[in-house]
Amino acid sequence: MTKTNNDLEATFWLRPSGHQLLGCALCVLCAGGNILAQDNSKKSQLQTPTGIPASTRSIPNPTGKTTGERSNLTGGWLTFEKCPVFALESIEIPSQEAGVIASIDVDENGAVEPNQVIGKLEGKVADLEKSIAGLQAQVAASEANDESEVRLAEAFVEEAQLQVDLYEEMIAKGTTGSADLRQKQLALAQAKVRLTQSKALKQQKELKSRLAQASVFLSQQKSDRLTLRSPISGTVKSIDHRPGEWVQAGVAIMKIIRLNELRVDCFVDIDQLDPAKLIEAPVKIYSKRGTTETLFAGKIASYDPDVSSAGKIRVHAIVQNQKSGKHWLLLPGMSVSMQLTTPQ
Questions:
Q1: Which of 57, 73, 121, 314 has fewest C-beta within 10 Å?
Q2: Residue 317 CB: number of other CB atoms within 10 A?
Q3: % of the chain residues with pLDDT over 90
């Protein structure tokens, strides 16, 4: 079949050249790449990023009322995560006197009550000083109670006064002279001076007796200072010195911590919550040990009077601790979850 020139021209325009085929292929590859990138982007938005701890991932909060460090609103309760736990009281028990530790009467983690004896320092010398002070006080009290000198001086005054009265009558009758009367009057004056001196001496003895009693009290105080007592009800946190060691006055021998009540803190946004209205608000504390989660009750007690640069204020809750057997479940340093009711 013979092709005309028109047929050849049509065949030429319908058949693509090599450059045109290459250009078409590049366009197809680019379009496919864009589709694949969009598909991967959608998948990445649906997947949770790996390598990021769950505690640091952002949690959506549709209410827009999230405050504090990672919190959300659930059923009228604000939930705060990773709230630190603190002890309300942690006391060091110092040695009040320099000396050798004689005994430690408690164990670490042991429970103690207020005024309970928890240890002693060597007190032989103190006991001897206390005995000497007691004997001296008895002697001083005996001397202070002796009124014989005063009574004798009073008797001399009484007798001298009778002599003066007698000689005055005799002078009135003219049976004696005035010189004898002056001698009796001088004797009366001497008796009165002796009485005054006796009373002053008795007062001095009474003061010495009181001073001796003070020495007894001082020696008793020194002896008591050798005895270590717990000022609070709590748990022995640590024992830093043992029997036989020499300690200086003021050196801490052990530490006692109170665990029946603890403090839990959280941060609230002052622009969204008034901390003053949170005072006395009830709180729930959730603590997890292993696979067991325990609920504790408490209430907001106070807040710090300063605001951070992020507009947060620290709020303090007082929580009642619980025991499992002899051991407290909530301990200082733990991280717990807190729920508190929002103010009306």
A1: 57
A2: 26
A3: 58
Average pLDDT, the chain: 81
For residue 305, the SS3 value is coil
- Give me the helix-helix angle, 178-225 and 148-173, nearest 10°: 170
Assess whether the region 62-88+258-341 and the region 94-122+227-255 belong to the same CATH fold.
no
Q: Is the pLDDT at 305 greater than 60, yes or no?
A: yes
- Look-up: residue for tokens 């000083």? 129
Q: Assign domain 62-88+258-341 to its CATH architecture.
A: Beta Barrel (2.40)
- Please tell me the distance from the alpha carbon of residue 269 to that of residue 63, in angstroms, as a whole number: 15
Position 343 scores a pLDDT of 65
> Is there a contact between 118 and 104 (Cβ–Cβ < 8 Å)?
yes
What is the amino acid identity at position 42?
K
| Domain coordinates in residue numbering, the chain | 62-88+258-341, 94-122+227-255, 123-225
What CATH number does domain 94-122+227-255 carry, 3.40.190.10, 1.25.40.10, 3.30.470.20, 2.40.50.100? 2.40.50.100
pLDDT at position 55 is 31
**Residues with Cβ within 8 Å of residue 340, at least 6 apart in sequence:** 77, 78, 80, 266, 278, 281, 282, 283, 284, 300, 317
DSSP 61: -
